Structure formats: C-alpha cells, structure tokens
C-alpha cells in the first residue's frame, strides 16, 4: 500500500505500477520473470519470448516484496541493473535500457542476512537509500480502533448487515499481541463475522482460542464496559508499568517491549509514568 501511495503521488502515476512477490516465484524462474527472456532461451519457454516486469514497468514503478528471497546468484544482475539502468534478458545478448523506480520490502533484517552471507552487501547498500520502517500493530495500538471499524464496516457492507463488537470482545482484542500483525486482525474479524451469523453482535465466543485464552491482566474487570480505545490504554499501561519497574532507561524499556525509544517516550508521557518512580 505504501509503495502504491509513493507511485500515485509521483510524476510516474500515469505509468504502470507492477509488483512481484519474490518469495512466491521459484528461484529458477525469478530471473526470467523479472528480466524476461527470448524465445527458446530454456526448456518450456514461450516461442516468442516474454517481456519481463522490469521492462514492462518502464517509466513507472516496480515493487518487489520479500526481497530477502531474491536468489543470491541473481542478485548481482539486479545490482547491475540498479547501477546502469540496463539489463540483458535471459538468452539474449542485447542490453536494454529502461527507467524504473524500484521499491522493495522485507520483514527480515537484511543487515543480518548480509552478515550471514545470504544477501549481497553491495546490493543492500544500493537498496537502502530511503528506508521506511513500518511499525507493527503492537507498536501502534492507537490505530486498532480505526482498523477494527474499517474491517467490520467492510464486512457489513459486503454482507448487508450492521454487526458490532460487544465490550468483552473489544477488551480481548485490546489485550491481544497480534503476532500476525494487521493481516491477523483482519482474519480474526472475518472469522468472527462468519461465526456470528444470525446475530447483530460479535461476541467474545466468536473469537479464536488464542485471543480467548490470554492471561494478561488489566486494571478493569472483564465485564466492565470499555471502549476499544480504553482497553488499549489499559494494556499499554500494564506493559509499560511492568517494564518501568525492571528498567530505568528508555532505551532498555524500548528493547524490553520491542518498540522504538521515541515510542516509549511518547507512551510514558501519555500515561504519566517515570521509570525511576515505579516500584512493584
């Protein structure tokens, strides 16, 4: 979505926006898919050849997801293209020049992969020009109410209904860690929507076991009416207070909670907490 926003907000917006998930293509075919090939280049190749995504995205944007899955042996060809704006299709000898904005994404630590010899360091430097870090849902819980409203609204529009979450379901979602991020939230809500067929309310019983069987305590009892925003604030306060009792530096609290130091600074201010003042 971010790559699409970048494309639509640029002078390239009238040209093609193409995307490829590198992890979804067998390594042996990824080079041909990206750079194209001439007829007869390999067994099973189309007789007339095939235009690759890089050439098809000329003057537009090409988005490569899961760039960490890009084959090591083909990375030098991608690096050469980024340096020269030229490439040679599989089985061809002619250098083709194109103008493409390349945006890549990964949920892996590319620097760590470089250290392990699984990703070329020169390619990592070439790609790491304007990095954008997408925080996990756990780091931006304030977005949860809007996301829930959006997903439930879409489901209501699709099925012609007007369902809502009850307070206990809201409370449980507010406590959950969402290891699968926003995609998991969307899947949980869609599942709950299906299981709540015939009712106007999505209740706790419609949520999956991993959400129901949480043991994270909050300051309010479960049957106390809470908005989703209030429930999230309770969870934030609980985790933050516990971490403040263990650590006295914001950087250590950030490492403990798996968030950035600026996020910790913002949360401490929001909840009126100071690490040195917490005693449990």
- Overall mean pLDDT stands at 87
Shape: globular
H/I helix tally: 13
Sheet bearing the most strands, described? 3 strands, parallel
Give the tally of structural domains.
2
Low-confidence stretches: 216-224
How much of the residues is beta strand, in percent?
5-15%
Determine the N-to-C terminus distance.
43 Å
How many DSSP E strands? 9
CATH architecture of the largest domain: Orthogonal Bundle
Sketch the topology as an H/E string, one letter per element: HEHEEHEHEEEHHHEHHEHHHH
* Fraction in helix: 40-55%
Strand order of the largest sheet: 1-4-7
- CATH C-level class of the largest domain is Mainly Alpha
**Which secondary-structure class do the elements indicate?**
mainly alpha
Radius of gyration: 24 Å
CATH fold annotation of the largest domain: Helicase, Ruva Protein, domain 3
């Amino acid at each position: 979505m971010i790559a699409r926003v970048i494309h639509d907000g640029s002078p390239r917006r009238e040209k093609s926006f193409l995307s490829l998930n590198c992890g979804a293509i067998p390594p042996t075919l990824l080079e041909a898919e990206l750079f194209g090939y001439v007829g007869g280049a390999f067994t099973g190749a189309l007789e007339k050849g095939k235009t690759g995504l890089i050439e098809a995205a000329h003057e537009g944007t090409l988005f490569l997801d899961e760039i960490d899955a890009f084959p090591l042996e083909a990375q030098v060809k991608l690096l050469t293209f980024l340096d020269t704006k030229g490439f040679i299709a599989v089985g061809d000898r002619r250098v083709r020049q194109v103008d493409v904005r390349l945006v890549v994404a990964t949920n892996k630590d590319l620097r760590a992969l470089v250290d392990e010899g699984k990703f070329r360091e020169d390619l990592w430097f070439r790609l790491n020009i304007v990095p954008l870090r997408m925080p996990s849902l756990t780091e931006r819980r304030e977005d949860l109410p809007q996301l829930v409203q959006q997903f439930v609204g879409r489901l209501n529009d699709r099925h012609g209904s007007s369902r809502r979450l009850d307070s206990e379901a809201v409370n449980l979602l507010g406590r959950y860690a969402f290891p699968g991020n926003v995609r998991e939230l969307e899947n949980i809500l869609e599942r709950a929507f299906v299981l709540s067929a015939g009712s106007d309310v999505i209740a706790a019983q419609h949520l999956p076991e991993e959400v129901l069987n949480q043991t994270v305590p909050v300051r309010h009892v479960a049957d106390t009416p809470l908005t989703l925003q209030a429930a999230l604030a309770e969870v934030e306060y609980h985790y933050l207070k516990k971490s403040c009792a263990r650590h006295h530096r914001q950087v250590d609290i950030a490492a403990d909670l798996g968030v950035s130091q600026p996020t910790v600074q913002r949360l401490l201010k929001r909840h009126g907490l100071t690490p040195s003042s917490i005693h449990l």
